Amino acid sequence: MIRALYDWTLRLAAKPRANYALGAVSFADSSFFPVPPDILLIPMVIANRRRAWRLALICTLTSVLGAIAGYVIGAALFEQVARPILALYGYSERFAEFAITYNEYGAWIVLIAGLTPFPFKVVTIASGATSLDFVSFVLLCTLARGTRFYLVAGLLYAFGPPIRDFIERRLGLVFVVLLVLLIGGFAIRYFA
């Protein structure tokens, strides 16, 4: 089954509309959906290494747009939904303390989460809910996500054929590692 999924993804990567799918997944990952764009980025670069930089740019731009959407979701839904619930239970002051602490370390949080497999949407929504400085937020998202996607694309560009051979020979192992990273990101979210 894993082999069929891998082959399907490689076929999708060669289609003309693959860039749109990559952009959509990258946007959704930063705002509301728990699927990292690497799932498409990696096979798309492997399928055609000459497009590596363009694909990294698509991921970066759509991820930043998704982060902005996540920020808006956090800001809008917080006022409409979360604030009344916090007030009902007497946690308004605690949230105010959390927001101060979050904003104090917000730059580091955005940078670290943007570079790792941690679910980025959690950070984008929290940034909006705590009113993290918007301009700084966008700049940090651009830096972190750009670094991540260009690094992945660059490594695949530089070492494409050996990496493709490695992935194809050890597809089960690669799948397990990616799954562990994905689950690890969710575990960090819930237990950190």
TrEMBL record:
Keyword Calcium part of the UniProt annotation: no
Protein keywords: Membrane, Transmembrane, Transmembrane helix
Highest taxon of the lineage: Bacteria
Pfam families: VTT_dom
Domain VTT per the UniProt entry, residue ranges: 36-155
Transmembrane regions listed in the UniProt entry: 55-78, 134-159, 171-191
Protein name listed in UniProt: Membrane protein YqaA, SNARE-associated domain
Species for this entry: Aureimonas altamirensis DSM 21988
